[in-house]
Every structure is written in C-alpha cells, then in structure tokens.
Amino acid sequence: MYSGVFDLPWWGYVLVTLAMTHVTIVSVTIFLHRHQAHRALDLSPLPSHFFRCWLWLTTGMGTKEWASIHRKHHAKCETPDDPHSPQILGINRVLWGGVFLYVKEAKNKETLQRFGHGTPNDWIENHLYSPLQKLGVVVMLVADMVLFGALPGVLIWMTQVAWIPFWAAGVINGLGHFWGYRNFNCADASTNIFPLGIFIGGEELHNNHHSFATSAKLSNRWYEFDIGWMYICILAALGMARVKKVAPVPKLLQPRAIVDLNMLEAVINNRYDLLARYAKSMQQVYREELARLQEAPRFKELRQWLDADASKLPSDLRYRLDEALGKSQALATLYNMRQELTEVWNRTNASREQLLSDLQAWCQRAEESGVRQLQELSLRMRSYALV
Q1: Burial class of residue 249, CB neighbours in 10 A (0-12, 13-18, 19+)
Q2: Cα separation of 344 and 365, whole Å?
Q3: Which one in 244, 265, 282, 292 has a CA-CA gap of 20 to 30 Å to 20?
Q4: What b/e string do you get for 104-114 counting C-beta neighbours within 10 Å, with b at 16 or more?
Q5: Secondary structure (3-state) at 196
Q6: How far apart are CA 68 and CA 106, in angstroms?
Q7: Cα separation, 21 vs 268, whole angstroms
Q8: 302, 317 in Cβ contact below 8 A?
Q9: Is 245 helix (H, G, I), strand (E, B) or coil?
C-alpha cells in the first residue's frame, strides 16, 4: 500500500518535492508570466507545450485565465478594479486568500474577453486543458501515488497543489505590493521582496518587473539574481527561446548641446534610472540642509517621503514637509522640479513638440538654478543615448 516505483529515504521525497515544485514555479514565471502575459520572449513549441502540460497537471490553471488576470492587474494596479491589491483589500486577505481572489476573477467573463487575447487556442487547449482543468491534478495525484507510494505520493501531491496558490497568489501578489525594497519609484506599490530570485523563480524582484513589465529579465542591480532569466538564457542558447525585450541599460555619450527629439526619447526610455538618481540627489540635499538648519530631529521622518507621490504623503507630515521646503530653497527647487519633470512623460495628450519644449525649459531652469545636483541631473539627461 505504501510502496511505489521508487523507494526513497525521507529526504529523498523532500528533494523530489522541491524539484517538482521548482519546475512548476519555472513554468509559471517563464511560460505564463514572461511569455504569455507580457510577450517578453518567444518559446519554441517543445518548451511551450511542456510548460503548458506541466501546469495543467500541477495547478489546473488555464493559460487564458492566468494571463488575463495578470494583465488586468497591471492595467488596474492599486485601484478597486485590481483583482488582488493588498493596498486596497488588505495584506492578510491577499497573502492568505489570494487563491480565492484568483478563482473569483477567473469567473469574470469580461476580464477574459478583454485581456485574454493571444493565448493558446488550439485543439488540445479547447478539448482538454480548458474544459478539463481539474482532470490534470487528478492525473498528477495518481502518478505521484504510483511513483512514490500512497502516503508519500499524497503528501507530495498536496504540496504541489498548494505551492502556486501560496507563493504566487499569496506571497508575490501580497508581499510583492506591501513589503520590501524598491529600485524604481513606479506609480504602483510594487516591491522587491528579496534580491536573490531563486525560490520563486525570480518573481521576488517584483518592483523591477512592474517598472519594466515587458522585460524578460527581472534582475536589474548587480547584486540581484533572477534564476528564471538563467533558464531563459539556456533555452535561448539551445534555440528554444528568443528574447524580445529586456529593461534598458543606460548608455551615456558626450552631452548634447541642444535638447532635441532624440534626447526626449532617450530621457523617457531611461526615466526610471533618472528618477532613481534624482532620489539620491534629493537625499543628499536633504542631509546637507538638515545639517545647515540643525533641525534633524524635527524633519527626520520626511526622508522616506521626499521622492514619493505628494498625494501619498500622510496628512500629519504634509505640514512639516511644507515647512522644510520653506526653509530650504535648494530642497524646494529640487522637490518641485521633480514633479515638473515627471509630467514630461505623464502628459499623454501633449504633442512631441510640446513635450520637447517643456524638456528644454526644464533643463534651462535646472542649469540656471545654482543647485549642483540639478545641474548634474541635467547633464546626465543630455548624455543619455538611444539604444
């Protein structure tokens, strides 16, 4: 009753379980997430169908459902229409009940119709994977019991079935928008949970992903590691994958003398790098001005809010920020010009000529401001190259 094809020690069953759940994680991050939802890479038929079949066996999730829900999450992020935002629904509900939020949204036909374009629509999808989603996990249960015995097989199967609902629907959708560090100040609350993306296939680097959603590579800093990207490189070397897009790496040339359309496009393409450097400049001026004013204790709490959206600033800190800006012309200039700069790429209804005019005016003001950090930022903007 308890014996299977393989008779392993207890630690052998643990290793097998971890190996199989890792394959599931890799299938989600490479196939469902980067390939299907965001089209960041192309996969050849062999790995594409292997991932699709494995997910059918271990999760029972439909490709169209998953891609649709994730695309809607990006389109409606941190709003009441977001299927699983902890900023709206609360961290406990998403962390521990993320799977129920997924199931609820999967029943929304409007979501599937609007966001489900381009997902598999072949014979096996329409006759097996989609209509018989629960059959796959039953087949996996039988296979686990046959291979590893009744009790070990059931325990391995239970772990497989619970793995994605907890780590993806719970941890990534929950903690990934609630706790961690941020490389880029993108519009949503996404965070990087941990710099070494191994356990959850690289999805730990969630802030990087939301900043560059169509990038096949989720790591961005030298100390970050994305194991999913490593597997993609292996598949590409074998001719089984083709990377379509990765996050831009800033390339700098000699500074332009004239602010032109090429510079506008280069600045927009490198806006997250620019904002990250802008944040460091603000922190530097903030420290210098606090030392000059000798009022560090009074304004200490403001540091983490300097590069945040003004609308997100707690009301009890708004007065203190205004007071700090009133006492420091350099900090006020840097703070206010940051908002003006972000409007250059947020004004979607403006013409390119108008945006170019705004950028020219911004650079001129920065260079004439007398604030060294602003002058350095303007010089860097003039140095961005189109790649």
Answers
A1: exposed
A2: 14
A3: 244
A4: ebbebeebbee
A5: strand
A6: 8
A7: 39
A8: yes
A9: coil
- Please report, in tens digits, the pLDDT of each residue of the chain (387 residues total): 567 899 899 999 999 999 999 999 999 999 999 999 999 999 999 999 999 999 999 999 999 999 999 999 999 999 999 999 999 999 999 999 999 999 999 999 999 999 999 999 999 999 999 999 999 999 999 999 999 999 999 999 999 999 999 999 999 999 999 999 999 888 899 999 999 999 999 999 999 999 999 999 999 999 999 999 999 999 999 999 999 999 988 999 999 999 999 999 999 989 888 988 898 888 888 888 777 766 655 666 666 666 666 666 677 777 777 887 888 888 889 888 998 998 888 887 889 899 999 999 999 999 999 999 999 999 999 999 987
Element (H, E) at 243: strand 241-243
Dist. CA 193–CA 209, nearest whole Å: 12
* 201: nearest Cα among 175, 227, 221: 227
Find, among 191, 196, 184, the residue nearest to 247 by Cα. 184
Take residue 14 and report the two structure tokens written for it.
């643990």
Q: Which tokens is 36 given?
A: 């299907």
Sign of CA dihedral 347, 353, 356, 360: negative
d(CA 192, CA 26): 18
What DSSP line would sit under 338-362, residue for residue? HHHHHHHHH-TTS-HHHHHHHHHHH
Tokens of 76: 């409606």
Q: Per the confidence metrics, is the pTM higher than 0.90?
A: no
Residues 6 or more apart whose Cβ sits within 8 Å of residue 312: 305
Q: Which residues pair with residue 196 across a beta bridge? A: 225
